[in-house]
Amino acid sequence: MPSDPHPTHAPALTPTLPHKWLRISGLLLVGLFVAYLDRSNLSVGIKNISTDLGFSGEKFAGTSSLALTAFLVGYLIANFLGGFLTARIDAKWILLATVAGYSLCTVLIGFADSVGVLVALRVGVGIFEGIYWPQQFRMAKAWFDDREMSRASAMIQYYGQYLALALGFFVLTPVEASFGWRPMFWVLGAIGLVVILPLYARFLPTAPGTTTVSTAGQKSGGRLTFAAFGGWRFVLLVFSYFTNGMLFWGITLFIPLIVPTFGFATSINGLLAAAPYLVSLVLTVPMMLLADRTGRRGPIAVSGLVVGGVLLAGVAFTTNPVLQFALICLGLGYFTAAYTPNIWAIAVTDLPAHAVGPATGIINGFGAGGGGIVAGALVGALLAATGTYALGLSVLGLVAIIGGLALLLYTRMRPAAH
Fold first, then answer.
1. CB 410, CB 88: distance < 8 Å
2. By the 8 A CB rule, do 118 and 112 touch?
3. How many CB atoms lie under 10 A from the CB of residue 413?
4. What SS3 class is residue 368?
5. Which of 164, 171, 243, 372 could pair with 36 in a Cys bridge, judged by C-beta atoms 3.0 to 4.6 Å apart?
6. Cα–Cα separations (whole angstroms), residue 366 to 64, 130, 137, 377
7. What digits encode the pLDDT tens for the residues 288-343?
């Protein structure tokens, strides 16, 4: 079978850890699952929150966009700073502190009595989760070799994220409808404090589960230079993730609001909001088998942005609600299944160990945080101007296609060996 034109090799020294797939990938999967519920819960409750906090009606489009993207403001800043400021601190203790922080903020949102308090606490959730994010890949870089990185990345980042989104909207929508938005936030925050925090404290490894492990041809604790990140190639990688962030968050922030506009039965809106992520989980199996069999992570990731972008761009060209919904499901489903599991494996294997935390913070901060903020503002503005989400989704699709071309250029510029 053909091999990756840019092969990777296993580090010379990879520390051993009993049950590492369960203790690292499994635990971080569960932790990210809960973290993503904390990110997406506001989308589920925003309609009732707007009534209680006084921004329903004409104020809804602008204020809901502000509230939904407030998380991403803190997330952007914290990803940038967190990766650098925590580079010399044991990843386990940063994970513990940040889980406690964003879980407490989530509990407090349930007591919010004004838009200002809501926005401030959502920024707080974003800050703690932004510092949390790079620590996952510091763990992965230290404990898994390059041949294991696709599976480790998929378990840690992809499955935690998309299981939460697939199950979250499906489960949280009826919970919020039955008990209200405040109890929803209280319960989710409590899960982080009384379940995830003790599990991390007991089972996650401390050093050498950080980026201090030496790898072939490099020393730990190297200088954090532009060249260490990959130079201008790194800019292309960050830009591709920015377009990913726009497409992903432009849909995820608004999907519980988009689905009711199609006129389907109200009783199935929660399931329909989860449908794009269920499609993603189904498509991931063949995409991961294809990636493992061919070793061609780059082209598969490129196809995720390009094919997904083309499908989403088609939303504005039809008024049929069934076809529009199908394009959203297939577009987001294919894009995430092809792009997300592979992009982090590409990034982590390309980066030297000492740069993993800062670099993944930059990628995710600018990409998910910055891209999500731009997408939220863009979709909100086009909704206010046109009264429909269709044009905003199509614009996001076109941006994703450009991101796919940037990633293609990045893969052509990668060195033949590390």
1. no
2. yes
3. 14
4. helix
5. 164
6. 22, 11, 17, 15
7. 778 767 778 899 999 999 999 999 999 999 999 999 999 999 999 999 889 987 88
222 Ramachandran zone, left/alpha/beta (phi>0; psi -120 to 50): beta
Determine how many CB atoms are found less than 10 A away from the CB of residue 231.
11
Q: Which residue has the tokens 């503005």?
A: 381
* Burial class of residue 180, CB neighbours in 10 A (0-12, 13-18, 19+): middle
Relative orientation angle of helices 160-179 and 321-350, to the nearest 10 degrees: 130
User: What CA–CA distance (Å, rounded) separates 330 from 186?
Assistant: 34
Give pLDDT tens digits for 270-295.
Answer: 788 888 988 988 888 788 778 767 77
- Amino acid in position 35: A
Q: Do the Cβ atoms of 304 and 335 come closer than 8 Å? A: yes
User: Could you give phi then psi for residue 10, rounded to 5 degrees?
Assistant: -70, 145
Please name which of 117, 122, 94 lies closest in space to residue 106, comparing C-alpha atoms: 122
Secondary structure letter of residue 254 according to DSSP: T
DSSP secondary-structure letter at 316? G
Residue 279 is which amino acid?
A: V
Instruction: Tell me the per-residue pLDDT of 345-354, one tens digit each, with 9 for 90 and over.
Output: 888 888 887 7
Cα–Cα distance for residue pair 147/40, rounded to 1 Å: 32
Greatest Cα-to-Cα distance within the chain, rounded to the nearest angstrom:
61
| Tokens describing residue 29 | 């999967």
Provide the 10 A C-beta neighbour count for residue 329.
18
Task: Kindly tell me the number of DSSP H helices and DSSP E strands found in the chain.
Answer: 18, 0
Sign of the Cα pseudo-torsion (315, 377, 279, 410, in order): positive
Cα separation of 21 and 155, whole Å?
A: 9
DSSP calls for 191-244: HIIIIIHHHHHHHS--TTSSTTS-BTTB-TT----HHHHTTHHHHHHHHHHHHH
